[in-house]
Amino acid sequence: MSGCCAVILAGGQGKRMRSDLPKPMFEVLGVPMLDWVISACEESGIDDICIVTGFNHEVIERHIDGKYPTVLQSERKGTGHAVMMAADWLSERRDKNVLILNGDAPFIDRETILAALWQHEAKQDDVTVITAEIPEPHGYGRIIRTDTGISAIVEEKDATNEQKLIREVNSGTYWFRADRLLSSLEKLRPNNAQNEYYLTDTIYILLSEGCKANAYISANPDTVLGANDRKGLLMLNDKARTAKIYQLLDEGVEIVSSDGVTIGRNVHVGAGTRILQGVILTGNTEIGENCVIGPNCLLDNTKIGNNTTINCVQSHDSTVGNNVSIGPFVQLRPGTVIQDGVKIGDFVEIKNSTIGVNTAVAHLTYIGDSDVGSGVNFGCGVVTVNYDGKAKFRTVIGDNAFIGCNTNLVAPVRVGNASYTGAGSTITKDVPDGALAVERSDTRIIEGFGNRRLQDRIARNTRK
Amino acid sequence: MSGCCAVILAGGQGKRMRSDLPKPMFEVLGVPMLDWVISACEESGIDDICIVTGFNHEVIERHIDGKYPTVLQSERKGTGHAVMMAADWLSERRDKNVLILNGDAPFIDRETILAALWQHEAKQDDVTVITAEIPEPHGYGRIIRTDTGISAIVEEKDATNEQKLIREVNSGTYWFRADRLLSSLEKLRPNNAQNEYYLTDTIYILLSEGCKANAYISANPDTVLGANDRKGLLMLNDKARTAKIYQLLDEGVEIVSSDGVTIGRNVHVGAGTRILQGVILTGNTEIGENCVIGPNCLLDNTKIGNNTTINCVQSHDSTVGNNVSIGPFVQLRPGTVIQDGVKIGDFVEIKNSTIGVNTAVAHLTYIGDSDVGSGVNFGCGVVTVNYDGKAKFRTVIGDNAFIGCNTNLVAPVRVGNASYTGAGSTITKDVPDGALAVERSDTRIIEGFGNRRLQDRIARNTRK
Amino acid sequence: MSGCCAVILAGGQGKRMRSDLPKPMFEVLGVPMLDWVISACEESGIDDICIVTGFNHEVIERHIDGKYPTVLQSERKGTGHAVMMAADWLSERRDKNVLILNGDAPFIDRETILAALWQHEAKQDDVTVITAEIPEPHGYGRIIRTDTGISAIVEEKDATNEQKLIREVNSGTYWFRADRLLSSLEKLRPNNAQNEYYLTDTIYILLSEGCKANAYISANPDTVLGANDRKGLLMLNDKARTAKIYQLLDEGVEIVSSDGVTIGRNVHVGAGTRILQGVILTGNTEIGENCVIGPNCLLDNTKIGNNTTINCVQSHDSTVGNNVSIGPFVQLRPGTVIQDGVKIGDFVEIKNSTIGVNTAVAHLTYIGDSDVGSGVNFGCGVVTVNYDGKAKFRTVIGDNAFIGCNTNLVAPVRVGNASYTGAGSTITKDVPDGALAVERSDTRIIEGFGNRRLQDRIARNTRK
Fold first, then answer.
1. Does ipTM exceed 0.95?
2. Which residues form the domain of B437?
3. Most CB atoms closer than 10 Å: which of A332, A438, B423, C21?
4. Can you tell me the distance from the alpha carbon of C361 to that of C342, in angstroms, rounded to the nearest whole number?
5. Which residues of B touch A277 (CB under 8 A)?
């Protein structure tokens, strides 16, 4: 898309959000609205982008981190004024078409951008307003059409009763010929008592000079949606959630109840996988086919293979293989790799460790900073003691080892292949292959102790 | 219902589900749609049933497992052709009324089946189409009524504009006199270019021979619902969930928020019980009266007594008594029996064990393959070591025993009545009644160790 | 509001609830409807309140616990009869305005009560009916207005077709001049075959005597809502939940999905805090600013500071500081105080303990009845052994201590400042400041043990 560039207006404050965050930084499905808009550009092949910042601009600059140039609108003087801030940047792109977008209208999409551009170029228009037909147009700018294009965008407050019936509204996104936009910006004058410059006035300037203005109706009416308060933001989130759920259903994913199901836009889920209620999938999470996920999972940047069951698990930055069963009540922390056929039961935490094929970790166990072989059996209550108060060390466990219940493995330590540790042992030295290591004292039996205690209890209860 | 039999058409594929599962095997509330239809027959007293299979018929045959005969429609040539496959079976039932049902329309119900049969017999009709009046009939076959019955079922594509306004539609379920059905099937001819035989054409054949066709309007408009894709299946699930929730509310169950609440059709819940959000009850789960269940429980085939609190628990194939409190964060695995008055705290797993009256298992404990008496107190971190890498063994704990924290009970082992185990002990031999068993070494105190470490830490932090 | 008093009618049964609970005791958002009504009075400055009980009056008396006087309506003879029961109480308040309310219409609010009183006094009316305009008035008493006030309240069954179109309906709440109410009650006669006295008939009596009756339209149409069955109660809960969520959104709280989110009316949440799905906040819970709460938390009477993360936690009667991170899968039981900067990981229970600044409790730990200093590090699997079968004792841990994994701290015990305990030790005596305490036996290595076991396993598998 070498003939195209984009300017994203991201200066808004969002006062009614009651927050210091710039409005485009509020999140929909966990992603700032600004990033939705940038993604729509990038998916349309437009990567020559300038971002106009304003309120708390440092937040956006830090977020963009130099990936795209930003220009600052230091005074809040309207959308036309905001685009003027990009005039220098635009003047190097005079021969291009420029897309102007709102950084807080996240649902603009590739299809709309490209189809509008196609019409813009095919009709050789100077400006193409992207519009949508919506059932309740109240509050939006109405599009006044002519035989050959459009003649005006009428704001709610200026609309006649007849105009108020028009359901085609301005989305705030436009394709301009950059040279025409620049020349009209030079002629733009403040529109109102607040001394604001309206971008829509450039259309009248262009029309008055004999240029051609037209509108493209997006097939996606959500294109026009933004959020002015947190209620609106919740509504955008609900729309985005439902859209993603419907997409997955079409792709053959089974969702039994969508209550609490929140799946990020970059998440992939394979056909035949069943998602139960309360499942949150974020980041670049990928789920294979024929899995069962849920209820109540939170998987972030986690890869899951096929035929795997994940029940009440929280996981970050981890990888899980095929035919694995995990949960309920498990946490996988970053750097966890679970290989095929592993079974992990309840109350288990795994961190920065590899668990080999067909290993079983049944219950109440912490495995941290460990390399665990295949076919290993962990008893209940095993702890890898990876921290001595000074530094962290690794534990290595060989194939087919059997770790007894409540064993402490004090790292750095290696438990050999096919070796055993006795229940309740604290293992501080390496265990050779095929051996048993056991730390055990003699057990003393004190006859009558329990009976005396019981008599005390009975006496106490009798006194009550 | 000795004069009745049923044929269930279960050959559909469900292409848009993107799955190899036959359509009638897709689940609503955890139960295949086919089983909903079979249950409706059985609840109506009809247990002489023939199932016509088709796409991936082995899946259905395996599921039915010989309980009912199946016949295979090896080519997909329409509903009339499907019923022809059952002609031999029907020819042994010439004197009966036969109910033809769709295996993927799960909401047919006993009231509808029996009331339609009553009308069918009372009016001495030869075929009675079960219909429903629905607000949005688009896509369904419309019923054309006459003074004495019906004259046609008009498909959407053949309907005149006037006929499209008719809101009475075909559910796809019919009562036929079996002999009439058989004779009309013999005369049935392919209807279209695809060479398909339509079951509805039998009605025209019967009418042309002077037989009587009529329609019965079900009080339950959901009778007509099926699912062609997973979006539709989600909708059926939502309908079924809501219907079950309303039924329980009518029966005196309190539901504070229905979000995530999913209760299977065979589940019973007593009056006065409160169900919180995120509760999934499946299989033959039975909950008593005045319990509190939730939030976030998954109870499958689990029986709960009265006045019991179940908070954030997953349970399969277990039984819990009265006045019990369990949770949060507990798993009961198959074969668990919890007797009255027991208290189970957090991070506890119990499997294949009996826990006696008034016993307390407060936290971080695994009890597997154990017989636990009454009045027992488990310290935190107790583990029944039931597996030695070769076989599983049982642990027996007597009444009023006191198991110290982090005790390992290495099975097979018996802890006697009123006996104690010391914290941190690994118990490998039986503890006599009323005794104390303790495994403990001397504790060494190394003065200054911690101070040196602290100085190291301070030094490190200073260098940073 | 010294010139005002209130009578709350709380005698209803709620038969269709299928419960022995008086109807006003059914809960909305965890608070009995009666308490919603009492709170509305109290928030309006009215604390001179008389409650008329009836069905299972002991339950209400026990709940009110003497805070307000109650009078018993022992026969169920209508709303007029119920108010008669308070005649003695009212006769001492002849010069006041009295508010009559339904104990099972929870959404009456301060604004409505005070604005209606203001009109009542400004217009010098003798009775002011609080009304609302609702879209579906079916079943409610319709208000017949005149030029100067109202002339009647017509019940559904008595309404003409024209009157049924009236959308202004009676909420069942009234301001009366107490003297007028008393005199009209004396003249009240049974209205119907059931011998019931209707409170609305007092309006006709007053009008017939030349008194002035008027109506005040509440801005809040939910004022009229009550619940006759549990379906209605679920609807009230949903309304109350949504209202609270919208209030918090307006106050700058971020809610990504409201599924399963249930926030009690007395709960406060600071701006910038993000609430995820499945969060239940009850009692007097207070959350600070810029926290992340959820998913799936249940916080009851819990105070949380600022910038704190609470993930999958259940907490009762606890306090948590600033910059704390807790979860997932944690329980805080009553009496827990978590100071600033603490990190608590997974599968941790804390009860009746203080955790000092910057202490870390990473996993699988129980801390009960303990005073823990600052900068302490708990290894995995630590247990405070606070109960010896006879009594509970406290554990004291000094600043910067390091508690090794699977340590048992047998209370009463003190671990000194900057001291260490070795992994797997059971500590029964105080550990001096800066020392290391370790209980450890020799570890025996039995060569070949594991190999023999492995050979057995292979042999077994071969035989299969």
1. no
2. 365-464
3. A332
4. 8
5. 260, 262, 278, 280
